[in-house]
């Protein structure tokens, strides 16, 4: 049962590793990229580079939040403690992605409106952004208490359609068939599909303590 | 001549050329990958010596020409052109090259020919994008014969008086300044004269988005983004967008080529 031991060891270790550095590293990274763009170190087209980098980091962090539950279910490694920080940091990158696009790239309110309405890949990207706003706003203990865990959990299921829309947004905006956006879409579909596998009822001889079936 | 006019016109309009570094570090050359920096990173491996171009189809003197023979005695001049990518960014490039028309005269275009087709080199061992098959290769492009013969249409061999950087399509590439950049095919190894409209790579991939003509036109949007404005690269994080010009600013020179054509239909 080496794997169980390993999982237990990881679970024990993470008790000593707080989640707050995720915010710090995220915001630091965001600022660092902006500085690189400002100082001409993101190539000759820094607006586009920032847009891409912030967008890609959003997707990567959202994928990380999607990994948490299956990881716990299939390996008993529980990183749930970090999920809120990952999710909120993803949202901050998404906000930055949106602002770079709106303020630095399009540079006009009428253009922003027209693009959201006229371009399907922007419409769905914007929809993902809007879907994630209530999640970001309620990612705190007070909201969980006020809403109650059931309502709160239902709201936070919006993350599934939002991530899917984000991945399609990525696939839809590229020219040709580069593998990267399809890889993200595939991984996200797999991570969502895994949640459809029904949890097998106990049957295990020695269920590890605290391994509650999860979705 | 029209060529020096184009150069002077560019100056008169206050075109500020991009630096060689900018021009050679932000490229679409999918043979080397789809990222804008991929060509700069990987193009070094491309073998460009010796280089020959196969000229075939409806010509009097078909054959495989060494590059130097094809250009021998032709005037290499500088043309400062706007370069407008279909992705809505732009540059200003001081090309060095010869008029395609002069090369066509050299090989002798037969009377029935109506189109010119071009093909880019394929070197799988030296081209990571080719190995990955990000789009079908070889890359192919084409022009109507009158477009190809237009005095603005260049076969370019250099930038800023330097030999063409590999990532920009060494040793010789097409430059058609009033069309979206992907029409200006790089690293040419075949020129075919034909009487039928040739297939072109992006049109094959997505005909709805990339037409055969692909003239720069601010009034006809790409299905996924607006073509009304563009951003010239090199302006930094706070670069302003500028209005895209009809035929990329070469309307006076080329509009006659499309007289009576519905440009929305023939995008």
From TrEMBL, chain A:
Concerning InterPro entries, the annotation shows: Fe3_Rdtase_TM_dom, MsrQ-like
Membrane topology of this protein: Multi-pass membrane protein
Tell me where in this chain the Ferric oxidoreductase domain is found. Answer: 56-166
GO molecular function terms listed in the Swiss-Prot or TrEMBL record:
electron transfer activity; FMN binding; heme binding; metal ion binding; oxidoreductase activity, acting on diphenols and related substances as donors
Q: Name one matching Pfam family.
A: Ferric_reduct
* Entry coiled-coil feature ranges: none
Which keywords appear in this protein's UniProt record, sorted alphabetically?
A: Cell membrane, Electron transport, Flavoprotein, FMN, Heme, Iron, Membrane, Metal-binding, Transmembrane, Transmembrane helix, Transport
Its subunit composition reads: Heterodimer of a catalytic subunit (MsrP) and a heme-binding subunit (MsrQ).
- Family of the protein in this entry: Belongs to the MsrQ family.
Protein name as catalogued: Protein-methionine-sulfoxide reductase heme-binding subunit MsrQ
Species = Pararhodobacter marinus
